[in-house]
Amino acid sequence: MLKKLKSEVDHFKSQTHNFRILVFTNLVYALVLPVIDIFVAAYIMRNSNDTSKVVIYQLAIYTGIPLTFLLNGFLLKHFNIRKLYSTGMMLSGVSMIIMMSLKTLDLTGIAIAGITMGLSFGLYWSNRDYLALSITNDENRNYYYGLETFIYTIIAIAVPATIGWFIQSKVGETEKHTAYLIITGIVFLITIAASIVCFRGRFENPIQKKYIFFKFHPLWNKLLSLAMFKGLAQGFLVTAPAMLIFKLLGEEGALGKAQSIGAILAAIIIYFIGRFSKPEDRIKTFSVGLILFAVGACLNGFLYNQTGVIIFLLLLLIAKPLMDLAYFPIQLKVIDIVSRIEKRGEFTYILNHEAGLYLGRLLGAGTFLVLYYAVSEDFALRYAIGIIALLQLCSIFISKKIIAQGNKLAPEDEDEKIDPKALEETATNIV
Question: Is pLDDT at 20 greater than 90 in this prediction?
């Protein structure tokens, strides 16, 4: 056992300096992600008891993200990517401070906090995606995302349970509110620590300085449709577990426990899939994740009780990492291919990819809101996830077409680099 563990440590040490630093940065920042994803939604539910406000908050976040992706392209001309990446992480703490300072959770205050969190995520994800693309290749991307997902899943065991216990240990609304304030302060300190780690990396900005195009290769258009289906689930799935648990399981203590069940097994499975799977295994991984998600969502809709929620969360705990483990390497592989064909910088595609995600997020969140206002809250919580999960099964067929076409277009020399001069010449075609 120790020999096997040592070999895994040695394998990690064999990766490049920037690879290791990016993993360490994301490891530290991962400590705050469960707080952002789960307990901010729980805070809104506790203080308003209105699931529509949770979804509106999420829509505000998703509106801020693509705007910041676009802004980040401009900022990269003037600032080092490490500064922008660090700023994105710290803004998440600022957003929580804004939320906790609201005396009443009106729509204006929720929207401001949501937009700020969107700015945070926009800076974080746009730069994180570019760095992941630039420091990995198609052969080690399964390992990178498997390792990262393993870390996130392990942290998802301890953080929700610990925070849930901490909040539930307080008596009365005043003490519980104070607990949220303490958590917010800790989150801000962690984002500072993650920023310090980030500055140990030798990360370079993208070569190309202009990123806006309107015509793309057919292969990229297929990936945008896949991104739309991914965004469809994101538009509701981030806050859905918190709303379901708060409605059907109880308060934050139950929320933390439910998120931790089965997470250790899931983390180990995901790590070894990422460590030993090959690029050609991505379709299988993606399909299993999508099917598990659909089964869990449909069972939740059919049962709509405590058992249904727990089953859904258990399956989601495995399904979501599997989907991400396959999706991100597929996305980056397509960027590798089309950026060579079209002679454009990689950040062009990272920026454009967000448009596909945003459209899907609007449709996903919109599905919930339409069902909420047209029928009822319970109807929306019960059936929106199932509808979205079944629609997402289309992603299996789209991803098969993407990989098949990508294999035909992939250059023989995978290490081929884009000529910077060609990038500058192509920039004249930008609108």
Answer: yes
Place of tokens 């709509």: 304
Total domain count, the chain: 1
Tokens 């370079």 belong to residue: 204
- With vertex at residue 155, the alpha carbon angle to CA 98 and CA 389, rounded to the nearest 5 degrees, is 80
Instruction: Say what the pLDDT of residue 208 is.
Output: 66
Compute CA distances 62 → 42, 305, 356, whole Å: 18, 29, 12
DSSP letters for 244-271: HHHHHT-SHHHHHHHHHTTHHHHHHHHH
**pLDDT attached to residue 262:** 60
| CATH number reported for the structural domain that contains residue 44 in this entry | 1.20.1250.20
Q: Is 95 exposed, middle or buried (0-12, 13-18, 19+ CB in 10 A)?
A: buried
Classify residue 5: in a domain, yes or no. no
Specify whether the CB–CB gap between 260 and 160 falls below 8 A.
Answer: yes
Give 46's pLDDT tier (boundaries 50, 70, 90): confident
Q: Is residue 1 part of a domain?
A: no
Tell me what the pLDDT averaged over the chain comes to: 83
Contact 53, 110 (CB under 8 A): yes
Pick from 242, 93, 252: nearest CA to 161:
252
Position 256 in a domain: yes
Amino acid identity for residue 322 in this structure: L
CB atoms within 10 A of CB 275: 14
Q: Which domain holds residue 34?
A: 11-429
Residue-wise pLDDT tens digits, 248-275: 766 555 555 555 556 677 778 888 888 8
